[in-house]
Sequence to fold (95 residues):
Amino acid sequence: MRTLLAASSVALIAAATLSSCAAADLAQSDVEANIVSQLGVKSASCPNDLKSEEGATMTCSTTTADGEQQDVELTVTSVDGSTVEFDIAPVASSG
Fold:
């Protein structure tokens, strides 16, 4: 049986490492932990940090508790100070 992941919206507070008004990019490990928490999957793997720019996208891979793998696409929907919000949507599998 194939498990489909539901779309989710997530807000992360970007840790500002420099004193600037722009939000720092979201650390890869923080994004992965947030995906696991929001989607209830066993693990998530992302290729790098998520750019804190509205419209930025990144594809990550998730693994469910029963071993099913599903790619998800993250899309930054808003950046407000140090708060970065992004949507998580399953990537349609081909075939």
